[in-house]
Structure of Pentatricopeptide repeat-containing protein:
Amino acid sequence: MYVQCGDIRKARQVFDAMPVRDSVSWNIMLAGCLRHGLWLHSMGIWRRMLREGHKPDSAVLSIMLSLLSLPSENDSKWGLEIHAWVIRHRLESELSIATALIRMYSKKNELGCALSVFESMPVKDRSSWNAIISAHRKDYGVLMMFRRMVDSGVQPDESTFATMVSACNDLGLVEGGMRLFSEMDKVYRVQPTMEHCTCMVTMLSKAGMVNEAYEFVSKRMSLNSEPKILRALLCACSVHGNTRIGEIVANRLFDLEPENEHNFVLLMQIYQNAGRLEDVENVKKGIEGCNVKLNGSQ
């Protein structure tokens, strides 16, 4: 009861006063400390639990391994300790535990360890495939892992494609990212979300494909009202000197967020770089009387 209410101190008092503690009570106490971020307390309970001959259940182990992906100076040591315990008790083949191990090593950028756990799994479900694909998000082998997933008969989902498109964006794999986005709906019947579309616009913009990025946005009405996507496109216009599209996108942003000074600054930069100084002054005049103050203005 106290654990569910978030009163871990009171729960610990009741727990310590119990004359007999079974595996259920140990797991409840351990899970409560983990969920409330009491990592040092959790490791203390974990070690006491093992000394008294009780075992954590799969759910608690998965929580522990998931939290080990968070920054901490002792994470590596504790992660290895828990992984060693999992191996000794032959639990590494359990899907939830193996997947949590993959995610833990992935967050620590230990791709080799994550891959070793994955390859040793006798059965791989979509969660484990998504975990190992995420582990490859900074590696050019990410496309190969995706194809392996599909060839194994596992259907990719929204999460799979979010990781894949993001990875293609980070790695500069424009052709691969465009092909995957096209396959989402046509081949796998997965509807693109705003996250997928944002990654696509960012990827095309970074590659200097401003016209293609604008065409991508223009074909999808919902994106024309999404400031985050339009700002990415406007930045690309500034970097790559596309005045025509920059004007269109900037004017749309002025309607959507009229008090965002950054949009005005970007348009002025576009005009400045194009040598259109009169237009720079026109933008400045256009914001007079509005609730917009450019940094450095008097």
User: Anything to note?
Assistant: The mean pLDDT is 87. Residues 264 and 283 are 7 Å apart (CA to CA).
